[in-house]
Amino acid sequence: METKKIKINSNAQTPFNNKASFCVGTGRMNLALRHEYHNQLEKIQKDIHFSYIRGHGLFCDDMGVYHTYNVDGEEKIEFNFRYIDMVFDDYLSLGLKPFVEFGFMPKKLASGDQTIFYWKGNVTPPSDYDKWAELIKASVNHWIERYGLKEVSTWLFEVWNEPNLKGFWKNADMDEYFKLYDVTSRAVKSCDSILRVGGPSICGVDDERWLKCFLEYCSKSGAPLDFVTRHAYATEMPDVNGHYVYQKLRPPEVFLAELKISRGIIDSFPRYKGMDMHITEFNTSYSPLNPIHDTNLNAAYTARLLSEMGDTCASYSYWTFGDVFEEAGVSFTPFSGCFGLLANGMIPKPTFWAFEFFSKIGTDAIARNENFIITKNEKGGLAGIAWNPKEDSGGSDITLDFTFELENGDYSLVKKLVDENTCNPLKAWIDIGSPPYPGESQLKLLRETAQPRTATQRFQVTDKTLNINITLSANALIYFEIKKINPQTDRGFDPERVRGAVNA
Amino acid sequence: METKKIKINSNAQTPFNNKASFCVGTGRMNLALRHEYHNQLEKIQKDIHFSYIRGHGLFCDDMGVYHTYNVDGEEKIEFNFRYIDMVFDDYLSLGLKPFVEFGFMPKKLASGDQTIFYWKGNVTPPSDYDKWAELIKASVNHWIERYGLKEVSTWLFEVWNEPNLKGFWKNADMDEYFKLYDVTSRAVKSCDSILRVGGPSICGVDDERWLKCFLEYCSKSGAPLDFVTRHAYATEMPDVNGHYVYQKLRPPEVFLAELKISRGIIDSFPRYKGMDMHITEFNTSYSPLNPIHDTNLNAAYTARLLSEMGDTCASYSYWTFGDVFEEAGVSFTPFSGCFGLLANGMIPKPTFWAFEFFSKIGTDAIARNENFIITKNEKGGLAGIAWNPKEDSGGSDITLDFTFELENGDYSLVKKLVDENTCNPLKAWIDIGSPPYPGESQLKLLRETAQPRTATQRFQVTDKTLNINITLSANALIYFEIKKINPQTDRGFDPERVRGAVNA
Amino acid sequence: METKKIKINSNAQTPFNNKASFCVGTGRMNLALRHEYHNQLEKIQKDIHFSYIRGHGLFCDDMGVYHTYNVDGEEKIEFNFRYIDMVFDDYLSLGLKPFVEFGFMPKKLASGDQTIFYWKGNVTPPSDYDKWAELIKASVNHWIERYGLKEVSTWLFEVWNEPNLKGFWKNADMDEYFKLYDVTSRAVKSCDSILRVGGPSICGVDDERWLKCFLEYCSKSGAPLDFVTRHAYATEMPDVNGHYVYQKLRPPEVFLAELKISRGIIDSFPRYKGMDMHITEFNTSYSPLNPIHDTNLNAAYTARLLSEMGDTCASYSYWTFGDVFEEAGVSFTPFSGCFGLLANGMIPKPTFWAFEFFSKIGTDAIARNENFIITKNEKGGLAGIAWNPKEDSGGSDITLDFTFELENGDYSLVKKLVDENTCNPLKAWIDIGSPPYPGESQLKLLRETAQPRTATQRFQVTDKTLNINITLSANALIYFEIKKINPQTDRGFDPERVRGAVNA
Amino acid sequence: METKKIKINSNAQTPFNNKASFCVGTGRMNLALRHEYHNQLEKIQKDIHFSYIRGHGLFCDDMGVYHTYNVDGEEKIEFNFRYIDMVFDDYLSLGLKPFVEFGFMPKKLASGDQTIFYWKGNVTPPSDYDKWAELIKASVNHWIERYGLKEVSTWLFEVWNEPNLKGFWKNADMDEYFKLYDVTSRAVKSCDSILRVGGPSICGVDDERWLKCFLEYCSKSGAPLDFVTRHAYATEMPDVNGHYVYQKLRPPEVFLAELKISRGIIDSFPRYKGMDMHITEFNTSYSPLNPIHDTNLNAAYTARLLSEMGDTCASYSYWTFGDVFEEAGVSFTPFSGCFGLLANGMIPKPTFWAFEFFSKIGTDAIARNENFIITKNEKGGLAGIAWNPKEDSGGSDITLDFTFELENGDYSLVKKLVDENTCNPLKAWIDIGSPPYPGESQLKLLRETAQPRTATQRFQVTDKTLNINITLSANALIYFEIKKINPQTDRGFDPERVRGAVNA
After folding, report:
1. What ipTM did this prediction achieve?
2. N or C: less crowded end of chain C, CB within 10 Å?
């Protein structure tokens, strides 16, 4: 066991751009019509309340948007926004704004047959860019009419997804993407110039070249650009076995360094220096079949990322909030290695708590290192999060031995523990036989094993220092809160006379 | 630490008349109109689902039942069942049947002014027994009309409450009570002979004499009697301090012995031999101001009682389900030593879990001693509850070292732990400063500290024996479940390759 | 205006096999995962409470059931029941049992590429009947394991859908269907012989030949057959215009006569004489694009059918409960001529009320003709439904001039009126401009216009007859209830002194 | 039938200070703990959304606020805010702010025994004004601590209730009230000077003298005064019969004139000129036993008041939102003549709709007379309310023959009708036998009869004028909305081919 001694001055300040709750990813738009999806998102919003949501498939055929018919041999277009309305109405009712991703291509407007995923998103350029622009404008204008310009002006619009991958954009054709970007961004602005549009939504493959070329293109062509977007995942090459994929994690430092390079490229363009860079997708693994997503390791590793990504990024959107997701087909079990913070059956995974904890600590940080962050929270107390990611078996515990400089008085400590012993529903599911189709009583049990253990203590500070030890087992994630209290005792109540009311 | 070795044969049988969920007590009827009351009872029914509910105050003036007016100088009676309807409608909608307690006396029908409690229940005999009989008949007939005879014939009717105490019945006048019983029981039967009525609802003061005389009275007078009722509390004399009362517990054996004496008295009457004895109230302390009710000790002690009371009793009704209760006035804090399984703010107290656990284990017991009970549950597994009450400070741990004789195969173990460290909301409330008026975020925290810790394990049995140790700290209460499983592994899923998926 | 004088003897009896709430149709199984679907079905069950539900697409690829993979070059099958479980769990939680329709063909098991509908159900025979049998057995056994044999034995299993149409079954190949039926029905019975299976699920095209041949086939082959199924629609040839289809209705008598022929064919087989014939689909039009479904005409016409279909059929399942339906793609407006009792946006269509009314009148009929039915209801009153379908413009009113022979006393009359003026949300939607994407306030308004007008009256019967006129405008549908009452008047309440309390 | 021709210029302006939704009255504070109360208030807020709520009994003993105990013979005070917190928490969660009425007197602080109502509110002055001030300060400071000063500074504080009545204030002692006012208002301001306090909360008995003297007192003494309060009821002397009271209404003009006198008195004090006058209670009858409250007459009469009271008053609070009310005891029936907008059983009375309608029309009036008001509403349409109160039997209909000057184009008209035939639950209840204890199915029926009839029409304006007739039967209340629409017709949809889609 390693012990780290740390002194905390509650009046210090340290950088921390907490955007953990800014945006979250989702399975494709059509899935947003699902009942389980709605219920999961409702829970997510109740506990974490993200501000934006982003997903694929807005214009896929299962959304029924783009239609043509013939009159006297001439093709006419007609639009149908019913399903998009249902999805966006639901988002807004849950306190979420769309981070709109324009894509993929309606079959009637596609130039080819290439599709991606089980659900067959067409990834070819439009056969007619004018009609594509018409689709963009009709959509944006419909939203302005339905929700008002004031509302829509707070949304963000992104052009396509990962065009630097052949799977997502035919031939990963850079020039074709720039054309798409140009047409799309101008179509958005033609609806109203205050609308915000960005790209290029690339992932970490050949990304430096793509980003430079994209910014050069915009710079020269004058294509509107309000923010830059990219993706970031933290795993090495996959090893496939049956339905599953296994990968090693890269060190967090390596992951974070990649973002700094992008940041640097943007800042190297005088015109774009300081421009917002949104990470419109991130996670450990980019595969919805990697069991790592269901582990405590994932939570501890992600917590570290959440504490530092804001140093370079305007936001970072975890991919995805729930396991209602079908890129690789219908999952065979409730713990299928999918991206979600919630497993199907409304079971919070450990990483759910990383986001729940970061949603509570605010932005006013006083101390941070590779294992913890501490902030002053709104109610005048201190709130901290600590983590200890250990991918390899074994892995020793760490104790953070904090000394807080505080006023004298009474204090309460609240601790919420998420670790491999205490809040590990994946293990619980395996322990009960890994049932592929758990019934309601099994799901209830799994939800119980997916709760942090909450414990409280009371301290008296008489010499302006409070010593608190936080011990982190391998892959533990801990939230803690220290608060000055003004103890009140009801007339005649004597805790000493009540068995168990005070610590033995 | 003490260790007890215990061998369990899953085909054995042991007596166990599990009536923990048969009936529960409640604050007075008028409180059943409250919003918080409804919400608490709804939670109770969702988790424990009692069959019956019993409380005081059916005919108190705040229920607005009994009225008189004058026509030409003559007094006429009119009844108003609106509030009773609201209460009983709500009970039935929550799956509860009334265990009707007839009392107390409407002021207009009372022979005196003596009242009990903050809410002033009149405890004097009727000024006119004919009018009392009219009240009883009008009520019962109203229920038959509203709910149908089939439904009402499943209810139970009890005459008055604790007439052997001067506080509850003027002068504790035995003959007067017998008269009341006679008139009331005959009034009930006059509505329909299949209705079930009983008494004498005495508490443990001079109870042997009262019970004998009562049975003699019924025997001689022919007053209808379908079951016998009494109360039982487990504490010594109170020591009052401010708003609170402190008492010592009697040993569980002493508590249980008292019930056996009553049982014996009943059985000594040939006519009543084997007749149901319902304990229409029981708890540790009879005071709503004793902090013991909020402790883990209370849960562990009660669990012991629940495992054995059925040996002598047809049922035993915990007094009460929640802290919406006003006998001693409005409580000053959420942990005020009141009777409820739920503290105000929807916080389960440790004893809540004793009932929740007993509601799940069924009735088919295979082993039992003073620290545990094990049953076969419906789903073919074994379910057990263990407890370790220690009133005095200190108190050593106990380990139950079980050896189960089982078929070979894979087994899962689920354990739910409620102890002074893990599930002790009273202590948590004190740790955060014992706020008298906690806000919603504090209540949420307290509810989190009031959940059992649920843990799972998997075992392989190869030699027909499974050894499991259950360690009970002082006042611990543990639920455990052992179940044969048929593990299924999805194609390609390898727990060994997933960090944290199996025990290190 | 036509007036019909009718004498009603409340002790008479008339045939009436009310199965209006036995079963209802639904959009394909995958849609049952939708949020709007769940909400609509919940409302339907709250108000009408059907017993069974039937729809297409159980084995379509979007349910993710049937998979194959290769091990050492050999194809292995694996099943995934997650989505089916979600659907059936939801049905059962809403009080519905599956009327299982086996179909269509998973792509991996299909012998061809032919598909039907926007959602591309594969309608070709299995490439391997043994694997198809394996799929059937795995499914049924999975349900027995999950829900218990007792539950599953109350379900009904039907083989395929409308094999007599080329669109639904490749080449409408009769022999191939009989093979499918044979294999499937035996597979079901192999799971447990008490399970009930039937066919041939034909529609009204060449149906007499199909039915005869099918029964001959079963008779000879010994294929298990527990009930016969067919479909019935009431419209003539379609006239297509844009998104819509217009058709004339056949007279109800013609519709009903067709069912009698089927009944006769069944009864002509001694082995099958009297066997249940379930109409597993019926409606006016078979097109989901015919605006008739949204009209009052549809309600009045359907009411007539509901009053008589039970004369020949064991049940008749209205196709469908709601407009979450995609056979012809995503509807462009909330009133798109789709089948549902509810329009999208939770708006009851007039026909919703036909079913709601029939769900309330019970089965104990005392009088019936082509315009009304009257029953004794459970609460001792009389309940009636009256209708006046008029397809052609104009159409005169009808007055049903009832004379009821009743005991003397006080009676209340409750009337619920659904007609083109009063409860006509289609017209209201047109009046407000037929918005394709109504917002919540417009939907609220439309729901208000979709409520029956409920009115009450009080009568005094002194000469053992009560005269009540029910006037039906064109396409009116009326529910009425006559009940003896025992008026109670609170002390001092004088309706004559209260403005508006009694009819002027 | 009378016809009134009215020309409406949509660009005109007319005075209209719409405060119908500013504040509403409630039964005493303790009733706010009830379940039915919560449910009724939730519905009220969903449909009408009042901003403030005011009721009696804040400090009555059933709220458990004020306690004393002795230490060494000395009396000490302790406060208990649990119940007040529960009530105010609930109000705030429902979007309501307290219009706090300080009163009545806790028994421990009272100088006498005089009480009012079934629930026995003590109406005597404090025995010790310092302790009263302590109670006020403790309460206000508790609210500031719990809800924040920012929130509490938006509340309004009123001193006592109707001190000009002997029943509400011992001897109606004016000087004693002024003393109470002085002490209380200064106590409030001592907590924070931005808090707003007012009085004298008088009813219309000797009110001119009281108001003048009160303002003189404040003026001289310097007692803080931020607003003036009074009450207003519209009925003559009562005629009592059994449980009921009958009264004649005064003409609305007389009712309104009384308020102008008060307004004039206030304005005659230079210091108070223009000061807000809040009518903290108003209704037709001041008796909770007058059936008028349940009638359509009450709705039509109240609508008239709502259209004009804002001319002199800052607000006017209808007494009360619901029938959970006990001043005269527990009501014997669901239509007991009580004050509420909702009858028990969640049945909207006609007057509910008057408030619902006024909550929707906004404040931008263009025309008004004694029978109607028309405003421009937010969505660019016109919204109107019309009424026709007729107390006497008979009473002829009125037709308002409106000519609107409008742009050419298509318009929709929506009408909601509440009249004695259409939306009259009192009559419906009588028709079904006036059951004192209706069951759920009867309540459902009554709720159905309590809905307005909503109808729509479409118009085309080609000559810049639209003629619309609104016919009001006796005691009718009508809401109507005229809105320019931009009709959209889906491709191929032809209303002429759809039976019932357009008016015959």
Report:
1. 0.96
2. N
Q: How far apart are CA D450 and CA A166, in angstroms?
A: 63
Alpha-carbon distance of A94 to B225, in angstroms, equals: 59
Candidates D30, D50, D152; CA nearest to D96 is D50
Instruction: Flag if A64 and C330 touch (Cβ within 8 Å).
Output: yes
| Contact with chain D for residue A486, Cβ under 8 A | no
Q: Where are the alpha helices (DSSP H) in B94-156?
A: 129-147, 149-152
Mutate to test the interface with B, among D28, D31, D35, D40 (most CBs of B within 10 A): D35
Q: Name the maximum alpha-carbon separation found in chain B.
A: 93
H or E stretch at A132 = helix A129-147
Facing residue for C78 by CB, picked from B69, B78, B491: B491
Task: Residue window 356-395, chain B: list those with CB within 8 Å of chain A.
Answer: 390-391, 393-394
Residue of chain A whose Cα is closest to the Cα of C437 = A82
Q: Do A499 and B453 touch (CB under 8 A)?
A: no
Measured between CB atoms, does C437 come within 8 Å of chain B?
no
- The tens place of each residue's pLDDT in chain C, 504 residues long, gives 789 999 999 889 999 999 999 999 999 999 999 999 999 999 999 999 999 999 999 999 999 999 999 999 999 999 999 999 999 999 999 999 999 999 999 999 999 999 999 999 999 999 999 999 999 999 999 999 999 999 999 999 999 999 999 999 999 999 999 999 999 999 999 999 999 999 999 999 999 999 999 999 999 999 999 999 999 999 999 999 999 999 999 999 999 999 999 999 999 999 999 999 999 999 999 999 999 999 999 999 999 999 999 999 999 999 999 999 999 999 999 999 999 999 999 999 999 999 999 999 999 999 999 999 999 987 779 999 999 999 987 668 999 999 999 999 999 999 999 999 999 999 999 999 999 999 999 999 999 999 999 999 999 999 999 999 999 999 999 999 999 999 999 999 999 999 999 875
Given a contact cutoff of 8 angstroms between Cβ atoms, the answer to whether A35 and C34 are in contact is yes
Q: How far apart are CA A311 and CA C221, in angstroms?
A: 76
**Contacts of residue C414, Cβ cutoff 8 Å, sequence gap at least 6:** C454, C455, C456, C480, C481, C483, D432, D445
Helical residues (DSSP H) of A329-466, grouped into ranges: 350-358, 425-431, 440-448
A396 shares contact with chain B (CB less than 8 Å): no
Structure tokens at C280: 């597993």
**C446 inside 8 A of chain D by CB:** no
Residue B245 is inside which H or E element, if any?
A: strand B244-246
Nearest CB to A435 within list B434, B457, B488: B488
Asked if the Cβ–Cβ distance from B64 to D329 is below 8 Å, we say: yes
Residue A201 to residue A211: CA distance in whole angstroms? 9
**What is d(CA A2, CA B182) in angstroms, rounded to the nearest whole number?**
78
Give CA A306 to chain center in angstroms. 10
Q: What is the DSSP letter of C39?
A: H
- Check if C162 is active-site: yes
Chain A nearest CA to B68, separation (Å): 44
Q: How far apart are CA C163 and CA C103, in angstroms?
A: 11
CA–CA distance from D472 to each of D1, D201, D352, D469, D478 (Å)?
Answer: 10, 36, 18, 10, 8
pTM of the entire structure?
0.96
- Cβ contact C500–D457 (<8 Å): no
For chain A, say whether B431 makes contact (Cβ under 8 Å): yes
Give the neighbours of chain A: at least 3 Cβ pairs within 8 Å.
Answer: B, C, D
Q: Identity (one letter) of the amino acid at B326?
A: E
Are the Cβ atoms of D436 and C497 closer than 8 angstroms? no
End-to-end CA distance of chain D: 27
Q: Any catalytic annotation for residue B281?
A: yes
